[in-house]
């Protein structure tokens, strides 16, 4: 079956103007303003005149099999469902374990990623978790990265957080080196996802590793960098020194009232200060627990992250903070794909047909295609998870 999207404003994520896009099988067959397509195959034609075509969103940190546990067993958060991603325009997720890598396991994480793939989503995952020694499926992170297709790196490893392992530069450099070599041997990037907590040490450990070992800053992918203004300032310095930084879109009213910078505002601030636009990303931290700790690290509240926050942060960046549409878009498409080393986040002839058609006024998804399969049609969700 062929799908033709006529006269649609297109971003790849750079602006391409009005185009006609042809989808066939799992790929984009062509993008051209004068494209015509003659075939005996069944065709679906979509009028794109009130829509914007963009790459499917890449969510680089999702707790797809749930997270949490900071307030006991009953505080374990639920799993992500397929519709949580599709309704937010997300076509690719990267799953991770978090604080709990005991009750949650890599067997569970990988099985969930494979299940989401069977349901039609692009799904990857990290080996390792908050703590060292890094837990893994095979007992060895190098083997996980090399021999398990879905595993693309290690994370999220916690620094500057009372829940972390309080690791030192030598331990982190060894972990990064193992991930890098395993990535080289399996044609993966071997990214190290870094959970950055609220401690005043910020990113000092990453700079120490880069200063004393043969590990550059761009081996690390620190997230939660909008936790407070001081951490954001440290992130700006990190990005200017050659690293990438990620902003978390899931938040709470309490956190925003106590110093957290919204992801959209953080993105706008970095761009205004001249940070290279390709070094900035946003992720949802979907289905993670969002614990609130007092000054003595006592838990005083707990909420759950949502994948839809990624979409809402994109809209906030464009509409409220006047971030250029392409710059906001690349933070959730091509930029995270490049950090992770996956072939996603762009629209081009021959590329995988992961595509979202946004309403040109509201910027909400109207159509969602994953590997050429229509998952949402004219605002109606037509593909759900098996148990939804």
Automatic annotation (TrEMBL):
Any one Gene Ontology cellular component term annotated for this protein: cytoplasm
Keyword hit for Zinc: yes
Top-level taxon: Bacteria
Domain Amidohydrolase-related positions: 52-372
Modification after translation: Carboxylation allows a single lysine to coordinate two zinc ions.
Gene3D superfamilies in the cross-refs: Metal-dependent hydrolases, Urease, subunit C, domain 1
Residue numbers binding Zn(2+) 1: 63, 285
Chain sites annotated for binding Zn(2+) 2: 195, 224
Cofactor: Zn(2+)
GO biological process assignments: proteolysis
EC number, UniProt record: 3.4.19.-
Cofactor info, note text: Binds 2 Zn(2+) ions per subunit.
Compartment(s): Cytoplasm
Positions contributing to substrate binding: 68-70, 99, 130, 163, 227, 289
SUPFAM superfamilies, A to Z: Composite domain of metallo-dependent hydrolases, Metallo-dependent hydrolases
InterPro entries cross-referenced by the UniProt entry: Amidohydro-rel, Metal-dep_hydrolase_composite, Metal_Hydrolase, Metallo-dep_Hydrolases_sf, Pept_M38_dipep
GO MF assignments: beta-aspartyl-peptidase activity; hydrolase activity, acting on carbon-nitrogen (but not peptide) bonds; metal ion binding; metallopeptidase activity
Catalytic machinery residues: 285
Entry keywords, A to Z: Hydrolase, Metal-binding, Metalloprotease, Protease, Zinc
Record family assignment: Belongs to the peptidase M38 family.
Function: Catalyzes the hydrolytic cleavage of a subset of L-isoaspartyl (L-beta-aspartyl) dipeptides. Used to degrade proteins damaged by L-isoaspartyl residues formation.
Protein name: Isoaspartyl dipeptidase
């Amino acid at each position: 079956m062929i799908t033709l999207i006529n006269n649609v404003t297109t971003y790849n994520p750079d602006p391409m103007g009005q185009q006609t896009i042809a989808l066939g099988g799992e790929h984009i067959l062509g993008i051209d303003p004068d494209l015509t397509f003659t075939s005996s195959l069944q065709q679906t034609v979509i009028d794109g005149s009130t829509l914007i075509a963009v790459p499917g969103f890449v969510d680089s940190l999702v707790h797809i099999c749930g997270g949490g546990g900071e307030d006991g067993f009953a505080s374990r958060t639920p799993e992500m469902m397929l519709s949580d991603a599709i309704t937010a325009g997300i076509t690719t997720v990267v799953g991770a374990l978090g604080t709990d890598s005991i009750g949650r396991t890599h067997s569970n994480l990988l099985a969930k990623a494979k299940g989401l793939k069977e349901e039609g989503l692009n799904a990857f995952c990290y080996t390792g978790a908050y703590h060292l020694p890094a837990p893994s499926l095979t007992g060895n992170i190098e083997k996980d990265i090399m021999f398990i297709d879905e595993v693309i790196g290690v994370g999220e490893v916690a620094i500057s957080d009372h829940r972390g392992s309080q690791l030192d530069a030598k331990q982190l450099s060894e972990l990064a080196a193992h991930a890098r070599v395993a990535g080289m041997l399996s044609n993966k990037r071997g990214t190290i996802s870094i959970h950055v907590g609220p401690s005043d040490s910020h990113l000092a450990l990453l700079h120490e590793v880069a200063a004393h070992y043969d590990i550059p800053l761009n081996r690390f992918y620190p997230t939660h960098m909008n936790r407070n203004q001081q951490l954001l300032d440290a992130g700006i310095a990190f990005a200017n020194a050659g690293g990438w930084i990620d902003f978390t879109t899931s938040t709470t009213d309490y956190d925003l009232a106590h110093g957290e910078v919204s992801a959209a505002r953080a993105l706008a601030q970095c761009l205004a200060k001249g940070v290279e636009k390709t070094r900035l990303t946003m992720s949802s931290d979907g289905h993670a627990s969002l614990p609130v700790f007092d000054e003595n690290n006592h838990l005083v509240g707990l909420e759950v992250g949502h994948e839809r926050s990624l979409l809402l942060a994109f809209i906030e960046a464009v509409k409220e903070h006047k971030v250029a549409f392409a710059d906001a878009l690349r933070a959730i498409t091509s930029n995270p794909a490049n950090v992770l080393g996956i072939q996603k986040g762009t629209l081009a002839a021959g590329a995988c047909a992961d595509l979202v058609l946004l309403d040109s006024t509201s910027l909400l998804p109207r159509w969602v295609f994953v590997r050429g399969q229509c998952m949402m049609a004219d605002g109606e969700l037509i593909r759900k998870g098996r148990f939804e």
